Amino acid sequence: MMAAIDHLPFIVGSYAAAFVVIAALVAWVTIDFRAQRRALADLEMHGLTRRSAGGPAQRSIEGAKEKA
Amino acid sequence: MALGDLANPSRFLAFANRAIPWLGGLTVIVFAFGLNQAMLAPNDYQQGATVKIMYLHVPSAWLSMMAWAVMTVAALGTLVWRHPLADVAAKAAAPIGGAFALLCLITGSLWGRPEWGTYWVWDARLTSELVLFLLYLGVVALWRTVEDPARAARAAAILTLVGAIDLPIIKFSVDWWNTLHQGASFGLEGSTIYPTILFPLLIMAAAFMLLFATLQLAAMRNEILRRRVRTLRLMRARTAS
User: Fold this and answer.
1) Interface test with A, best of B10, B110, B214, B221 (most A CBs within 10 A)
2) pTM for the complete prediction?
3) B76 to each of B35, B41, B70, how far by Cα in Å?
4) Nearest-by-Cβ selection for A61 from B50, B106, B235
5) Domain extents in chain B
6) Domain residue ranges of chain A, discontinuous segments joined by +
7) What's the ipTM?
8) CB pairs below 8 Å between A and B: how many?
9) Which of A45, B83, B214, B224 is buried deepest, with most CB atoms within 10 A?
């Protein structure tokens, strides 16, 4: 038991480090997902969609390109 | 859904959207069980309670190597088969693998101080794991430096294949050199770890693998969305000019 108390800071430090690293990874993917989704929504709000989505805005862009 | 269907990014996104909440939930449950078992496990007769650091150190070491193995397969997918999701998978795995390598080094140092009397020694196992961490940093830096994703993917794939040489060096370093780090605990004859300590270790390893799978899927989803944003921005710039 004495050994456990002696080494407690190393054990707690390890688990704290794991918590921080894993929390940072989860925060990174979550924040990044929200940022990308927001950026996509913003672009779609301005009438831009992917070709495969085939929305009216995309068709108008394609039309503009052909005219040019 | 057939596995081949996932090669299509839109189908992959639909799959990821469905799978991530389930995988995340399962990860939390297995982590809770694994941590509970780790805390209840007996102390080692030599190391005492510091053996509890093993439940984090060993799975993070395994995951740091597994993530590079995933990147190596993805690198082949990029260079040989030109699979549409290969470089997405490689790019997503790099920071996650790097984080596990960092965690392995931190927990290893914190375990080494009470057991060996030092946080760090230039031992073959420790040094080769440090090299792996630096390789991860190199791949992440490469992805961030080259703007065109296709060019960045090829450069990162080459670095990944070269870096894969480090994996057998890490694995066999304790056999090839006289190291302070202990020898392998798992071999063809089974494990040298006592079952009451081995069981929590395997549960924690399963939890770490589930965590990796969840984060990998989520990071791949982000990368596909990022490429869509990039494509739309390029389209907007072209139509504006």
Assistant:
1) B110
2) 0.88
3) 36, 42, 10
4) B235
5) 50-178+212-240
6) 2-67
7) 0.91
8) 95
9) B214
